[in-house]
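Field log, afternoon session.

UNIT: design team B
ACTIVITY: writing a sequence onto a fixed backbone
BACKBONE:
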């Protein structure tokens, strides 16, 4: 098992090379907001878009917490995070890099046929292809292919092999040529068939508000989608008033934010399971 000192040592070395780093907790995800910054109360970076730095010294802002400051990496504020960390992550965009995350053997085979060779890093299920240059980060470019660059993080898995080459137009074009969301939805809960809460307009407003909440999410898209599905199901999941068209609208909004059809289906199923539906 990797020790906290090992993670800190790797982080310090990366930071010295100009690569912004942050610790990952169990589940290989960033640490959540501290009490002072919960719900973006501190302003600044936690919402990933607002201008201005956050003065909080804790490692609680996802990719935006990534730093090259050795004093901060070794500070008491980060000490507990390193004690609990299971891995080191870095912000590719902050290092002027783009990571093409290939999450399956099929995705790797596709990249070999369609993308210029560059430095590669082996992952649990595939490879990271690393290019010099930045672009927008988007998930689900095609099956098993995610783009991690600006406003994103990638797990550090070693320096990899091969020479890093310039970010090619073929990778940038993945965003432009991204396929439209698939018309996929989850199972519709059974129930009485008519919304017992108010009027049909109440359901329509609820679906519209849910679509807006997902569309306006600036960060934590996975969590926002799940919580939105949970909120809709908690109100309408036992009525039977939800139709396939309603659920498809929610899935389309989530996929437009970068969620895959599989992630949408999993979030919907998990929300139903949580509510006992």
């Amino acid at each position: 098992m990797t020790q906290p000192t090992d993670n800190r040592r790797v982080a310090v070395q990366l930071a010295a090379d100009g690569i912004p780093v942050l610790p990952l907790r169990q589940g290989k995800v960033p640490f959540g907001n501290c009490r002072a910054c919960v719900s973006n109360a501190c302003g600044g970076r936690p919402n990933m878009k607002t201008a201005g730095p956050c003065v909080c010294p804790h490692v609680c802002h996802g990719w935006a917490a990534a730093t090259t400051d050795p004093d901060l990496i070794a500070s008491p504020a980060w000490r507990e995070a390193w004690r609990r960390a299971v891995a080191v992550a870095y912000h590719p965009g902050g290092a002027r890099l783009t990571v093409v995350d290939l999450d399956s053997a099929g995705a790797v085979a596709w990249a070999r046929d369609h993308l210029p060779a560059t430095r590669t890093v082996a992952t649990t299920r595939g490879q990271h292809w690393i290019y010099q240059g930045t672009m927008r980060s988007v998930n689900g470019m095609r099956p098993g292919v995610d783009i991690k660059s600006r406003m994103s993080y990638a797990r550090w898995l070693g320096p990899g092999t091969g020479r890093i080459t310039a970010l090619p137009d073929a990778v940038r074009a993945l965003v432009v040529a991204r396929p439209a969301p698939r018309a996929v939805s989850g199972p519709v809960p059974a129930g009485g068939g008519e919304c017992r809460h108010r009027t049909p307009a109440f359901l329509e407003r609820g679906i519209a508000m849910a679509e807006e909440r997902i569309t306006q999410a600036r960060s934590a898209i996975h969590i926002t989608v799940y919580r939105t599905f949970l909120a809709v199901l908690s109100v309408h999941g036992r009525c039977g008033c939800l139709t396939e068209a309603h659920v498809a609208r929610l899935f389309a909004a989530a996929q437009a934010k970068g969620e895959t059809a599989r992630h949408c289906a999993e979030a919907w199923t998990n929300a139903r399971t949580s509510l006992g539906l």
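LOG NOTE: The chain is about 40% helix and 15% strand.
NEXT ACTIVITY: expression trials, pending approval
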